[in-house]
Please model this.
Amino acid sequence: MTGGPLEDPDASEGPLSELRAQIDDVDTELLDLLQRRLDLVSQVGEVKGRHGLPIYAPAREQTMIAAKRTLAEQHGISPDFIEDILRRCMRESYTQEKNMGFTRQAPDLGPVVVVGGAGRMGALFARMLVLSGYDVHVVERDTDPDDAETLVSEAGLVVISVPIKDTVGVVRALPPLREDALLVDLTSTKTEVMAAMLAAHPGPVLGLHPMFGPDVDSLAKQVVAAVPGRDPQASRWLVEQIRLWGARVHEVSARDHDAAMSLIQAQRHFSTFAYGLHLAHEDHDLTELLALSSPIYRLELIMVGRLFAQDAELYYDIITASPDSLVLLQRYHERFDEALTLLRSGDRAGFVTRFAQIGDWFGPYAERFLTESRGLLAHADTTR
Amino acid sequence: MTGGPLEDPDASEGPLSELRAQIDDVDTELLDLLQRRLDLVSQVGEVKGRHGLPIYAPAREQTMIAAKRTLAEQHGISPDFIEDILRRCMRESYTQEKNMGFTRQAPDLGPVVVVGGAGRMGALFARMLVLSGYDVHVVERDTDPDDAETLVSEAGLVVISVPIKDTVGVVRALPPLREDALLVDLTSTKTEVMAAMLAAHPGPVLGLHPMFGPDVDSLAKQVVAAVPGRDPQASRWLVEQIRLWGARVHEVSARDHDAAMSLIQAQRHFSTFAYGLHLAHEDHDLTELLALSSPIYRLELIMVGRLFAQDAELYYDIITASPDSLVLLQRYHERFDEALTLLRSGDRAGFVTRFAQIGDWFGPYAERFLTESRGLLAHADTTR
Model:
C-alpha cells in the first residue's frame, strides 16, 4: 500500500493513457473476431436451414459451452465469464437467424390464413410462416366478408389470433373449412376455445399459446404451449416448424394449461398490478428510490414498472380470462392476510417456520434461483 | 427455400463440422484476447490503486462504450451486442479488482475495530479495510470483554455490524471511545440507531447502509446509503474509501432513508413472502410451471424463489425493523383489496384507468424499465 489521499492523480495519466490505448487495440481486434464468429454461425444457420435442422440445439450448445469452460480453466480465466460471453454471442446469432429462411415442413399445405394477422402476435406468426416458404394471407375486421370466406374455406391452415375475449365468437363465425385443414389458435387460455374449435371444425385442431410477447428478439428458448385437439398426426408438421424457429414446444392438456396459466400469468400480473397501485399511491420520489436501489432492488422495481408500459386491455384480459383465476386470487388474498397477521403479531418463530416450509416447497430450485439471479444481476446496469 | 421434411439431415454433417471447427478456432483466439484485455485492465487497476483513483469511473466507462458502439456500427455489428460484451468484460475486471489493494484514505487513523466482524457483512467490510491498508481488529461475542474494551477504546474507527435487533443494545454497551474516533454502523434502518450512536459517542458519527448482500462479486455499482450523524468532515475519508472500492455513496437523512427502505425492502420482501406462501399452498408441480415459463415468467419465479434460499431471520428483521413498515403494509393490503374488487366486479374501464394512472406515476421509467428488462431477459437462461 503506497501513498495517501493527497497524492497527485495527474501523475497517473502517462501510464494510464498508454494502457488505455492498448485496451483500445484489443477491443478493435475483439470486434473483428466477434464479427468473424457471427459470420461463421450464420453460415451454420444456412446449412441447417437447407437441411431442415432446428436453429436452436440445446444439447450441442451444452457440450460446446462445457468444452470452452474447460479451456477457460486451463487458461486461468473464469469459466462463468467465458460462458457468459459465448452465450451472448449465441443470442446475437439467434437474433440474426430469426430473419433467415426456414425449411418448409409441409410442402403441400396450400395457403395459410391468419385471422387477426394485423395484430402483433398474428403478424409475428405470419412473418415466420412467410420466412418458412408458406403462402400466407391475412384476414382482418376490414377484409371484405366474401374475400375472407373464400380465403378461409380454401386454406390448409387457419390460425386464429384475435383478442382473448373475441376468440370464441370468431371461431363460431368461421365458414366451413376444408375437411383436411388444420385449425389453430394462439389464445392464452385454452379450455373454452378448444371446445369452440372442435365444435366448429370436424378436421384437425391444435391449440397453441406462445408464452412470449410479439416483440421478442428471437424465438430461440421461448416456450409455446401446445394443447392437442384432434388428429395430432395432422399438426405434427406445425410443431416441427415451430421447433425449427427455435422455440420449445411443451404439450399440455387444456385444463392443466389453464390451471398453470392462472398461476404463471393471472396471479403474477395481478400481483404486479396491486404492487404498482400501491407504489403510485404512496407517491415516494421514484428517482430517490432508484438512487437508493442496488442492482437487485432496481431489478425488482423494473419488473413492476415494465408492466405499465404495456397494454392495459391485454393484461385485464389475461387476468380475468379464466373464472378459476379470480378464485385463485381470492385464495392469494387469504394468504396475504395470513402473512400480514403473522408479522403484525410479532410471531418471529411462525414466520421462520413458514419461510422454511416455502423453501422446502421450492426445494433445490431456491438455491438455483439465487445463483441464477446473481448471474442476471451482473447484467443489471444502473447507468444506461 | 429448398427441401422438405424428408430431406436427409446427415447430408449436412460435412459442411457443418468444418464450420464448427472454424468456430472453435475463433473461440480459442477469443479466449486469448479476453485474457489480454483482463491483464491490461488489471494493470490499469494497479496504476489507479497507486494513485488513489477509484476503480469504478462511470463517466469514462460511458465515453468508452459510446466510442465502441460507433465502431461497431461502422463494422455493421449491433452496438448493443458489443456493449454487452464489453460490460461483461468490465464486470470481470471489477471482480478481479475487488481483491487488489486500495489506497488508504486515512493514513493516520490508527486501529479499526469491527464489532460483529465475524458476521458476513462485517467480514466483508473488515476485508475491504484490510485491503486498503488499515490495521483491522474484530470483536465478537466470544472476545474476552477486557480485550474488547481495550480494542474499542483505542480505535480510530469503530464499525458496528450486528443483527438489526441487537444494534442499539450493542451501541449502548460500548465503552467510551477515543474523542476523535469515528463511530459507524451498517444497519438497514437508521432512525433509532443514529440516535443511539449520537448519545453513546460525543465525537464523529456516520450511519451506513450497504444496499447489497455480503456475497456480491464486486462493490462496483453497488449502493451504500450514508446518513450524516456528527462532524461530516471527520468521516469524509471513509466515504471516499468506499467510493474507491467502487460503490456509489448516496447521502440521505435517517427519516428519508427509513421511509424509502420501507418501500424498497420491507414492502418488497413482504410481497415476495406472501407470494411464495401462496405458491407453496397451491402446490402446483413446480417443474411443470417452469416447463411452461418463457424467460420472462421464469425470471418472475426466480425473483420469488431466491428469497427462500436465504436467511429467514434476516428477512423477518428487515420487514419488521421499522414500525412504519407495518403501517405501510396495512395500506398495501388495502390497495390489494381495491385491485381485487376492481377485477371481481368486472370493471374493465376502471382497471384500464388505474393502469394508466400507475403508468403516469412511473413516467418515462415504465418504458425504460421495459427496455432494460428485455436486455436482461436475454441473459435469463433456461438451460443451466
About this structure: Residues 95 and 218 of chain B are 5 Å apart (CA to CA). Strands of chain B lie at 112-115, 136-139, 157-160, 182-185, 205-210, 223-230, 248-251.
